[in-house]
Amino acid sequence: MLEFREVRKQFQVAGKTIPILDIPEWNVNQGDKIAITGPSGSGKSTLLHLISGIMKPDSGVITLGGERLSEMNEPARDSYRSAHIGYIMQDFYLIPSLTAKENIEMALSGAAKGKSRRGSVDEWLERVGLKDRGAHKPAQLSRGQQQRVAIVRALIHEPELVLADEPTGSLDWETADEIGNLLLELCGSHKQTLLVVTHDLNMAERFPATQHIHQINRMNRTLQVQEDVAI
Ligand code: ADP
Ligand code: MG
């Protein structure tokens, strides 16, 4: 459902070009649940930004759900993302002035307000153990509870592809464990694809598949070789 061919991404910083990603070939099948691991600065977030269409590659082809994402303009990528992708970030990004329920409702389009195919917002809140917390604002929730709200917000429109960038990075290990389990449980359907970037090896172990960024990114492989030689 996702294909990368000869994809490159680089950044310009102070007049210098810094290559970050060089992905000759990478394929993800529908229904795959993959934990992507790798050191800080190795391009994991950049990879998710390319998949979600937040960024465009400098060259190469990204195909998602049969569509050439890398050839779409920004508005087309934005609308593709809101229809097909659920995105969960390390720091939740809930709107502080809105309640948990209102934060979730924002993700539902006009026609679907209040109800998704898998039930109402209240049913979703119950599913993630927040039955009595719908009227709470983010500051009145624990960090783990805030992440649960962010997860419902990302999943309620039933995206084919769920991307999570270090979803447990700012949580204590016990809460991180619960959130990892919850993500796998909620995205358990054979149709839903889940890609989670994490350096929580505990969580990665729970996934049916783990890929190190060096397996995907040739750039890092070269860096890795240099590091190895240096050692
Ligand atoms: P990771 O998520 O694996 O920690 P990132 O994908 O965030 O890594 O970043 C990879 C590298 O690209 C880092 O060295 C980072 O400094 C650099 N980088 C990321 N975004 C930008 C940007 N917008 N401009 C310049 N450099 C960036
Ligand atoms: Mg990152």
Automatic annotation (TrEMBL):
InterPro entries: AAA+_ATPase, ABC_transporter-like_ATP-bd, MacB-like_ATP-bd, P-loop_NTPase
Keyword flag Nucleotide-binding: yes
GO molecular function: ATP binding; ATP hydrolysis activity
Domain (ABC transporter) ranges: 2-231
SUPFAM superfamilies in the cross-refs: P-loop containing nucleoside triphosphate hydrolases
CDD domains tied to this protein: ABC_MJ0796_LolCDE_FtsE
UniProt superkingdom: Bacteria
One Pfam match: ABC_tran
UniProt keyword list: ATP-binding, Nucleotide-binding, Transport
Family: Belongs to the ABC transporter superfamily.
Protein name stated in the entry: ABC transporter ATP-binding protein
Organism: Paenibacillus faecis
UniProt lineage: Bacteria, Bacillati, Bacillota, Bacilli, Bacillales
